[in-house]
Predict the structure.
Amino acid sequence: MIKLCIFDLDGTVLDTVHSIAYFCNFVLEKRGIEPFADEEYNYLAGGGAPNLIHQALSRRGLDTPELFEEVFAEFAPMYRDNVTYKTTIFDGLKEQLDILKANGYHLAIVSNKLDAQAQAVINATYGKGYFDYVTGQKPGGPVKPDITEVKGAFDYFGVTPDECLYFGDTSIDMITGKRAGIFTVGVLWGFRGEEELRANGADHLLRTPGDLADFVLNYKA
């Protein structure tokens, strides 16, 4: 019996790509570095904020330790303090999550976003306490596909992997879910496409947010 639905954040429960693009491009352009189109951030983002900055600088041939530290030190607090800018809930998704909550499912977020950013953006968009559990990358801590934070969710709710479903939009999420032994669902409204999700172990795909509640309510292992 499913008790817990674990969700990625960026590209899964929130449309954040335009926000990430805006603030990353701001700190790049400030230093005379060519910005990226918003859609390019579908592939730059997803591995956590430090990885985002490394990827952006690397693609411009500029990923030195000194420049990374400078850019990241400006990007991280700026994005944290303005994390709702250009960020929206995917159309129809909250209504689907409301159905799951009404039917007694616990909802958790496990994100590669810095923890302070994850907490801030979820509280501002969904409301504090809407999700039963929200966690992001801790200072110096691992990021997905490491399953440390997923195991933390298991412990918090007292559940086993077969009592969970895991939802995400990138290869990182699919690998994370499989490593944790969870039935893993790829969502096609986020950063990446069907081919990547299937190639990395998605057990099922959802095409629109409106498909979510029906899938969970009718899921049979």
About this structure: The longest helix spans residues 65-81. The chain has a mean pLDDT of 96. The two ends are 8 Å apart (CA to CA). The chain has ten helices and six strands.
